[in-house]
Every structure is written in structure tokens, then in C-alpha cells.
Amino acid sequence: MNSKHPYPPFIQAGATQLIIGTIPPARFCTDGAKELLENDVDFYYGSKDNSFWDLIGEVFGEQLEKSNTTKAIEKRKSLLEAHGIGITDIISECARENKSASDDKLDVISRKELGKLLIKHPSITTLIYTSEFVKKEVNKLLGGYHLIDPENKKKQSVKINGKMYQVRILYSPSPRGLKNLGPNGSTKRINQWRDFLIADS
Asked: What element of type H or E holds 116?
């Protein structure tokens, strides 16, 4: 099945960081009425099974309710605005294998125009990818490559439209991503998120 991205970028004036993910799960991307679950949030990374907002809340000391309500959406937007963080995804349309949300089960059809988006928001200096897959898609989109910090491969940089951006690649917020981190994965992940989201803000 094909999925079209359901949300426009959410970037307030003056944002300095831009979180870039892939695309929401299939139930968020239906042409008709969305098929959301009770504890889903109708916004980026709103799946009840994803730890994205749990991690963001822990980093900034906020309790974020998981519920299919306008209040839950607005709380997330307010938190992003308070910390100068925008959010978007790299994929605008894709085909999926068996409605899977896994990156390796996506066949990318089209990507969002990241270059144009960054021109519209010149205050952004840091791009925060939610997975290595996002980096690969950015390279395909822009025909470029990333420079890797020899001390930490999750810290990189990339030139877009002649401007150099700092890049941070987060440990994935998915349940599968946590399993891949092994013992003490939860601690390792939250420490990295806190370092990247706060230290670079």
C-alpha cells in the first residue's frame, strides 16, 4: 500500500534545531479517516508504541499524555516551541511491505523538499535525525554526503544550500531500536538524547 505523509512541517520562527524523521505508521497516512488507536496522538511520532515523546518529555522534564486528543497535540507543539525545535519528516510518499512501520520495509516514492524548507527557516543550525535511515535519505535527496566526527560517529555535519549544518543522529525511539542497544539501552538512549537536544540548543 502507498502512504502519503499527513502533516506539514511544524517549525516556528526562530527555531534553531530541526528534528527529521521518516514517515508515520500506515494508520496515520490513510486517504480517508485515520484509523488511530485510543492512545495514539495525531501528530509526528504519535504512535502509542513509539517512545519519541516519552524521551522528549524526560529530557525537558515534562509529562506528555498519550491520548487521541487536541490537548495532547497542543502540549507537544508548545514544548517544541519553548525549546526552539522544529519537526518534519524526510519522506512525503512511500510504499510499505505489509503496512510495516520499519524503515527497511519502506520503498520511498518521493521525499520532502528539505533544501527549500531550510531556506525558509535560516535560524536553523542543527539537524537532528531520528535514525541512520534518515541520513541515507538526505544524501539521496541532496546528492551529497556527511562529514563524520572521528570522536563520535553520531555527530556529523552536512552542507546544504552552501550552509554547513551540525547533524546529530539519535538512537531510534522505536521498540526495535531499543532492543538493538542491548543491556542498559534505556539509560544509554536517554543520555544521548539529553546531550544532543540540550547541549546543542
From this structure: helix 114-120
The mean pLDDT of the chain is: 90
CB 137 within 8 A of CB 22: yes
Predicted local confidence at residue 165, as pLDDT: 97
Distance CA 173, CA 30 (A): 23
Mean pLDDT of 144-155: 94
Domains of the chain: 2-199 (3.40.470.10)
DSSP-derived secondary structure letter, 26: G
User: What is the Cα–Cα distance from 123 to 13, expressed in whole angstroms?
Assistant: 8
Grid coordinates of 170:
539519535
Mapping DSSP to helix (H, G, I), strand (E, B) and coil, where does residue 118 land? Answer: helix
C-alpha to C-alpha distance for 62 and 15, rounded to whole angstroms: 20
Q: What is the pLDDT of residues 103-145, one digit of tens each?
A: 767 788 899 999 999 999 999 999 999 999 999 999 999 888 8
The total number of residues written for the chain in this structure: 201
Task: Compute the CA torsion angle 17, 13, 3, 107 (nearest 10 deg).
Answer: -40
Q: Closest Cα partner for 153 from 172, 132, 133?
A: 132
